[in-house]
Amino acid sequence: MILRPGIKERLHATSVLTRLRIIETFLSPGLYIVMSLGLVLGHILIYYFVRGIDSSGFDFSLNSVYDFIGRSLEGAFGRTILEKIFADGPFFFAFYISFLPALIFLSINSVFHLGLEKKVGALELLIYGPVDTTACFLAFFLKDIFFSLINLGVLFLFYTITAALNNLWLGPAVLFALIPLIFLSAAVYAYGIFTSTLTDNSASAIALFAGIMIFFLIVMMGSFAIVSGYIRSLSTVFAWIVKWFSPVFYWGLVIEALEVQNWPMYIVNSIALLVLCAILMMGSHFILRARGVQS
Amino acid sequence: MIRAVKIIISSLLFLLATSMQGIGQVPVRKEQLVYSIMAFNGRDYSRTFAGENADAIYLISNIDNFLGVCKTLVYFWPITGEWKTNLSVLNIPFEGTLQISGYRRELKNLKSTPYTFYNVRGEYELNWKVAKGEEAYRVWEHYQELMDAYRESVRQYQREINNYRERLNELTSRITRMRDEGKDVTGLIEKMKELKPPQEPDFPRDYIIPPSPVSKGFIVNLPPGKYSLRFITDEGELMQGSEIEMVVFDRRRAGSVGFEVIPGDKWTRPVESKPPAQVLYVNGSADLYLRPFFMDEYNDLYYEKMRKNDARGNPNLMKWVRVQQIPGARIFILKRGHELEVILEEPYFVEQLKGTSLGYRIIPYDPMGAHRGLDPSLIAFRVPIGNYDRIIDLRIEDKNGRILKNGTRQIRVIHPSRKGFLALTFAVLPFIVMALIYIQRYRVSKCSIKS
């Protein structure tokens, strides 16, 4: 018979498991590789941005890296989005690009491990002890948040140094755009855990998670794409239904609120991301309670 | 075998002939009921039309826009990828009633009204006026009178200048003749000096854009919202194909300041700094000439479709639209380590460099000296950029000394340096940390094996 622990026991178990997961991640090479990859990507973006400046300002056509980025973004979303992204320099774009490898790594890593531990019976073993399933996935979630904060801190330090070295402006708008990144990451990790609880093994969990994320991204990109007529009406209706489940939708609203400096909406939409995250975690909790951890 | 070759050759020739026919084809023109649209775009009026394929008509709210209903030929012009009308071949305007209905809004029945629109000269560029009904005819007549008077004064001038030239020629030949005869010509020279050429009449400067010829149309001025539009004929029947949606939209933000940035070394290729948070990064190789302007923010898709109904746009993005200039403004510039400096709008003249090499220089305009009789090439605020400037803060005030909304910018002078490469060493820092951890773990495991 499985005993259900109280809040205190669950918190204790979560903190112990989180610590273990953190140490485990610290000792594995993956995180360092993706962090370095992110930083190198960021460095390339800044390096070529600086070399794309002439007497009239920044010109995308002056080097091949930004020529490619500019053409791709302009072709898909129009000139306006390009102006907005690079309004106060390269940092908004560079921050998001260099954050992405760690975000993908951490989320996939958790999805994979949760699925694997379920498959091999490690979770089952744990829950016959003093730990319950909620504490198990909460540990994964907290570990991911912890490393996201570290990654963000490292990136911030890196870009502060880069800005100082190149006389670039790392303004408050960029910093305010980083805060929702944490909430967005939390929602993405929550989706990862949710998909793990829905599936029986790592492969299907990763496939489902990647599918959902790509789907949300396509819907979001579709809403920003330049289209007209029937396709626009159809995609608008479709996007309207799906967007309420999409973390990138709320993130987009936060960024929009930031652009017009509508601080109440900035906070409300940030909270909405956390609410989405909480709903997914609750969903995971109930699914695991109903299905158990046996695959 | 020969027969097969013949068949293949004739087939190829047939294909070639048919494809050549395709190249020479004119676009298919289709008779359609269209709404002709004269929409105010925040700066001036844009002419477009909504045909059968249009999803909606897009207009800016709370301003007069003009619609007309007519039957014409519509065709797709593949070279520019645009839908066009052929009004010269078929243009049947319809008289009737335009019915506009909207959610929780009263049904509006509009009758066509004569109208004209024009932009009068004032302090700002935008002084658009709309004259409706009888007033439209009065305005048009006034403009015609003004132009007639101008044409008359031009004719008068032509007569006077001809007389003047004739008189001048006559005096010149008389002086030459008398001089040849050895007579005194002092009196005639004095007379010639007294001759003054007639003053050329000025073109009427009342209008920046003169009134358009009076047209009849439906004047639509509505609050923001989505409406349904349909056309009812004078017989009280609904015109087939006239039902269409109408999107009336407002700007999201207004009165922000943007800058047209003209680098001294590329004065024919200005760039615009529109997002209010924008930092101007330059390499400092040339001075900057700035022209500030007011701008409003509109939905990208709505705005583009309002200007051109078959245009494409981004429904989820807002774009800044340049509206008009800022008269009498002052720009304060602050360079690090320097005192606050005020710069004013000044005229400049672009001079081609002498010699065979290409190039030019921008110098202050001198109307009384070297540039007499010439117009300035550019009127702008000059921001000098020195070799050692790194950060320059700009702030713009209007003529009343009021700091304008979003009227601040920062110019950063960027010189790519090798120091930027230092960041790359920082980028591989996680790898170094990983290596240290692995070395430490290796040592610990080695020690434990030994022990």
Decide which structural class fits the backbone of chain B.
alpha+beta
Number of helical runs of chain B? 6
- Described by its quaternary structure, the protein is heterodimer
Most strands sheet of chain B: 11 strands, mixed
The H/E string of chain A reads HHEEHHHHHHHHHH
Principal-axes geometry of chain A comes out as globular
Write the topology of this structure.
The complex is a heterodimer of chains A (295) and B (451).
Chain A: H1 7-27, H2 30-50, E1 53-54, E2 57-58, H3 64-77, H4 79-85, H5 91-120, H6 122-127, H7 133-166, H8 172-198, H9 202-224, H10 230-242, H11 247-259, H12 263-291
Antiparallel strand pairs in A: 1-2
Chain B: H1 2-24, E1 30-40, E2 45-50, E3 56-60, E4 65-77, E5 82-93, E6 96-102, E7 108-111, E8 113-120, E9 128-132, H2 134-180, H3 186-194, E10 207-209, E11 215-220, E12 225-233, E13 244-249, E14 253-263, E15 271-273, E16 279-282, E17 288-299, H4 300-307, E18 318-325, E19 330-335, E20 341-352, E21 360-364, E22 378-383, E23 391-397, E24 403-413, H5 422-427, H6 429-450
Describe the structure.
The complex is a heterodimer of chains A (295) and B (451). Chain A is an all-alpha fold and 295 residues long. In chain A, 81% of the residues lie in helices and 1% in strands. Chain A has one domain (7-291). A two-stranded antiparallel ribbon of chain A has the order 1-2. In chain A, helix 5 runs antiparallel to helix 7 and helix 5 packs parallel to helix 8. Chain B has 451 residues and is an alpha+beta fold. Chain B contains six helices and 24 strands. Chain B has helices at 2-24, 134-180, 186-194, 300-307, 422-427, 429-450; strands spanning 30-40, 45-50, 56-60, 65-77, 82-93, 96-102, 108-111, 113-120, 128-132, 207-209, 215-220, 225-233, 244-249, 253-263, 271-273, 279-282, 288-299, 318-325, 330-335, 341-352, 360-364, 378-383, 391-397, 403-413. In chain B, strands 14, 15, 16, 17, 18, 19, 20, 21, 22, 23 and 24 form an eleven-stranded mixed β-sheet that branches. In chain B, strands 1, 2, 4, 5, 8, 9, 10 and 11 form an eight-stranded antiparallel β-sheet that branches. Chain B has a five-stranded mixed β-sheet with strand order 3-13-12-6-7. In chain B, helix 2 (134-180) runs antiparallel to helix 3 (186-194). The model of chain B has no long low-confidence stretch (mean pLDDT 87).
